[in-house]
Description:
The chain is an alpha/beta fold. The chain has helices at residues 9-15, 163-175, 197-205, 209-212, 229-233, 278-289, 315-330, 362-365, 406-409; strands at residues 41-48, 54-62, 69-73, 81-84, 86-87, 95-103, 110-117, 120-124, 130-132, 143-148, 183-186, 217-218, 253-257, 260-264, 294-298, 335-338, 344-346, 377-379, 388-392, 433-440, 443-450, 455-463. A seven-stranded mixed sheet has the order 12-11-10-20-21-22-18. Strands 13-14-15-16-19-17 form a six-stranded mixed sheet, covered by helices on one side. Strands 3, 4, 7, 8 and 9 form a five-stranded antiparallel sheet that branches.
Amino acid sequence: xxxxxxxxxxxxxxxxxxxxxxxxxxxxxxxxxxxxxxxxxxxxxxxxxxxxxxxxxxxxxxxxxxxxxxxxxxxxxxxxxxxxxxxxxxxxxxxxxxxxxxxxxxxxxxxxxxxxxxxxxxxxxxxxxxxxxxxxxxxxxxxxxxxxxxxxxxxxxxxxxxxxxxxxxxxxxxxxxxxxxxxxxxxxxxxxxxxxxxxxxxxxxxxxxxxxxxxxxxxxxxxxxxxxxxxxxxxxxxxxxxxxxxxxxxxxxxxxxxxxxxxxxxxxxxxxxxxxxxxxxxxxxxxxxxxxxxxxxxxxxxxxxxxxxxxxxxxxxxxxxxxxxxxxxxxxxxxxxxxxxxxxxxxxxxxxxxxxxxxxxxxxxxxxxxxxxxxxxxxxxxxxxxxxxxxxxxxxxxxxxxxxxxxxxxxxxxxxxxxxxxxxxxxxxxxxxxxxxxxxxxxxxxxxxxxxxxxxxxxxxxxxx
Length: 465
């Protein structure tokens, strides 16, 4: 059996030499409890930097904890392995942030875990606290990732408190009985309005606590990550521990999962505009090095969109289209996941479109007929084989129609698929919702789920052998 236990109230005061008074006993001296009967868990646990043989488990305690430890095993009642946690150097006062790096694990195996400190369990030792290692790199496996764009609106002064909870609950309902999730991908703007540590607690860790204790989280920086707190909150495989070329930075990184290569970019805090920018050269080297069947790139800013942001007139988005898209196209990237605009929009399978919408030419830019909704899109391998761009930035709020900005509010970009449940001209939807990415062998399926647990859009992309 697990050797440690949570202290009850009576065990705590007994350890302090205090005898509780019977409710019916005569009035006398009231026992005073110690100011801190034991360390407290303040955040998490949450799972980071997953690999086929490793995982990082992070959590936060109050400042009283002087040491902490992770216990794990294949049975929640027999956690026979133990790893001491590292006390991380963070700028957050009054708390301690911990990371336990677990290595030497078996691929595609499930393990249960518990967090302990000062001989007391703070969390876990049950079936809810578990992690699963990734499959062997390069080996196909049915994989499911929940994608959250601009989810960080759960704060009192935002005008949108509770909307992320609504989107979360709708996805939970939609996903019930459909299988587990292998990861959660953030698309940036994870905690409004400035990405402070306190805002992250309310917007991310409180809302998705049940998921984060057993599903690995893959973060991304958006334009509302204004502070540098993000860099201390997350641990990523920046040394290539989970596949890919090491970046050496938390800001951007890559990893492998089964036969998928994921690349996470930071187009907000790290330089990328010049040809000799470190991130840009790293991106080119990383894409050239992978041999995975699928390549998915993640970033906050879309190259094409309407809604609050119009990609022809927004200079930042123009630069993404002109400077990042050619790199992705040359590398044969399959899917580009973005947020920023609080809508859902999805492109055709296209290549080589780097100008304004007036230059979009279906005969030149489309790489496959159809839109992937009724019949799968077939994609070849290699350079300039076509890519789908998804804008899914409605996990925390939807962008309503603003009649004062007619040019920016019509969902009409010709590179985007016309949806059956679309708004305005139909090339997008103004509905609260989240995105599900599923890859099984050489088949990729993308699904946008709204706040009623209904499908807004679903497409299928198949890779030609």
